[in-house]
Predict the 3D structure of the following.
Amino acid sequence: MEWEVVIGLEIHAQLATRTKIFSGSATAYGAPPNTQANLVDLGYPGVLPVLNAEAVRMAVKFGLAVGASIAHRSVFARKNYFYPDLPKGYQISQFELPVVSGGTLSIMLEDGSTKTIGITRAHLEEDAGKSLHEGLASATGIDLNRAGTPLLEIVSEPDMRSAKEAVAYMKKMHTLVRYLEICDGNMQEGSFRCDANVSVRPKGQEKFGTRAELKNINSFRFVEKAIHYEVARQIDLIESGGKVVQETRLYDSDKGETRSMRSKEEANDYRYFPDPDLLPLEIEPAFIESVRDTLPELPDAKAARFAADYGLSAYDSGVLASSRELAAFFEEVVAAAGAANAKPAANWIMGDFSASLNRDALDLAAAPVSSAALAGLLHRIADNTISGKMAKDVFEIMWSEGSGADAVIQARGLTQITDTGAIEKAIDECMAANPKQLADYRAGKDKLFGFFVGQVMKATQGKANPAQLNELLKKKLG
Amino acid sequence: MHTLSIGELAQKLAAKQISSLELTDHFLERLSRLNPALNAVITPTVDLARAQAAAADRRRSAGESGPLLGIPLIHKDIFCTEGVRTSCGSRMLDNFVSPYDATVVSRLRCAGAVMLGKSNMDEFAMGSSNETSYYGPVKNPWDLTKVPGGSSGGSAAALAAGLAAFATGTDTGGSIRQPAALTGVVGFKPTYGRVSRYGMIAFASSLDQAGTFTRSAQDAAIVLQAMAGFDPKDSTSVDRPVPDYQGLLGAPLKGLKIGLLQEFFEGLDERNGALIHAALAEFRKLGATTCEVSLPNLPLSVPTYYVVAPAECSSNLSRFDGVRFGYRCEDPKDLMDLYKRSRGEGFGAEVKRRIMTGTYVLSAGYYDAYYLKAQKIRQLITDDFRRAFESVDMLIGPTTPTPAFAIGAKVDDPITMYLNDIYTIGANLAGLPAVSLPCGFVDSLPMGLQLVGPHFAEDSLLNAAHGYQQVTDWHRRTPAGYA
């Protein structure tokens, strides 16, 4: 039987506020345990939550960016359960009335077509703390630094039909939240993580299959692996006469498998009810408009503009627009090098420049070659001072020394030879030095053309203008 | 001296006829002598009180003045007090020393009031007789075999016995007004949101409100002035100016329209009813007009309350899990054992009953039938009050159905106990301000009348109460042996 996979994602994006969602504690990552937890975070008797307006602003910004509706009135609810890293015995979240509902996000599929994924809702909630086991003999430690950190839980419709689509959606969302500057997107630190609802159904069947919720997925790679594993598991189960049960499954990235955490029957009854300590969240239209004014150009719009203004391919535009910083860098280079250099600029940024960043594990901001320096290099290529091939070497030196293109070219005497006489002289010498090859070539061994190009380049230390060399060599060899 | 009003004591302090330290020592002496029989105060703070009194005297010497500067009070043990045990009447918090002050506590301290100690209370404010306290029942100074009411029974009994000049309390379903009525003092519950709940250990967050026990309406105005006001730490506190309560007292009551809460008089003990009618006669003499008013949904307030309050309490009390503070069982064998035994051993029977009731009404499949329905009825009751206040300025009725009952008489019958709050719960459900005033005696025990006003009508309630107390002296009666 042919199976269709149905996937919906719940993404938890940690909002980049300075302080927690209901207390004044700092949200910075990596502080010693429990140094960023005040009495509110610790759930002390008598303390009360006060909503962080910045978290609301960020949620609204997100809602506007995905074309969702912003609730005039939304309600915080308590999700009740006992766990040591949940100090109050309940998590403050939103249940029946979320702040954001009904948006969309479009993703690009492998064949280049786009697909629109529905966003059911996005709601504000507080994160829990962490249980620590490392370095503690027979005890469990609790670190409440993360308790109360604001999260935006973004729930998609079950619109994805493959692990690849799920990854594309997650990546697009990752791009978007960083564009909006509402989440740092750091997946190692858990700032951006997701749960996946996965089910399968016979192709053509309308009714959804029974789903499993996969928890604890904190990388793009793991999303794909976890879904693949789970889909195979469900299909095997059904084809061997079994039934998928509705349950929560934990993804174990070490073993590459999912395993049951709890079934529907064992599921907690969270006893949600409106939190009486917090008034309903009321958002005025004027506030929404003021947030709308702060929206940056979004990734899709930016990519479309790159394609239209600079003639870049959809793929290249998409790659450059995938990061706000990268796109800004590209535009700086183009501004300095001129629109005519846009395509080479794109190629260099996505090519040697990005490769060097990756190789040295550097952030864009720490790149030793600035946008102005890269533009300088593009100028020297365009005006034929150096060849594209030489430019690669010049770029390497610029990267390691942090110097400009002109300085490198001058210091190393790397100026391209465009003097026809000089190139002709070098060709003549090479022909004279290799009579056998010359004879063979003239006897029809065309492949030896490359040999002569190499010899002349070697003799000119690679400085001969390649186009001129080709032309002159063809003439001379006859 | 211990029977004088705050105003009278403030005059003596201002005139340097007495120092705050002397006044404090006077109350501390009474406390150590009289409290053992009453069990009203569970944590006296003698050294702190004397230090605060000395500080108040220094502030006065430095030229400061104020109606509460140097005036001794007792805080209900539900308010967090920095460096002082805050038990909430529970074994669960018997070892809990708060690292911070509740807003009510810090405001009164800033006003110069001197804390003599923390008063006994029903465990986590759940009770109407002060018998659910881990520290044992409080005795009513009018008759030591009787309860003082609850949950703020310790504060009420302490004030009635002259152990302080005033006391604080909290009122979730009548926990200030009912004990005030049963001990013959003035109990004032402000509008929900008028006084900050920050640092007040939560029982039912949407109903809890801090208030006062005083000897007179005028004293209530003075104390409320210091307590009330917006607190950025409490999102449910209301950002609205606090009127000059004391300055507004004394306005004539002519033209005041008082509605008799019809539902409260049905089946009412005749002697109790007679006291209310006598009070009404006084109000009429002062120029007020009276009429009957019906709030048809009000009889549903007790069942509504006993869904909403336990629901909130079941969640509010989850934080007492033996992990970070409070009681922890011996040698827990695993996490579940830690939870079960810490909570099982740390909480008393009434608290457990309400946690279980609340958990039940919030459960999947029951939420709509109980919690949601109760919230709808709550809205109907609130609407009833709103409609009533379109035609009258305030409502009047008894505070309690009966005078103080015998200790032990109702402990085995929670429903009968719950019905004690039948007249007080409505104001909590609707978030309205209400005051209980001494209005006479039944069986030699004090009784209270209750005035309920519209939201933020603290000033007119206090003024009406003050007017009544200008022509009556029920509030000046003191129990024998405590004069």
User: Anything to note?
Assistant: Residues 220-239 of chain A form the longest helix (20 residues). The CA atoms of residues 19 and 27 of chain A lie 5 Å apart. The interface with chain B takes residues 39, 42-51, 78, 80, 82, 84, 87-90, 142, 269, 271-273, 276-279 of chain A (CB under 8 Å).
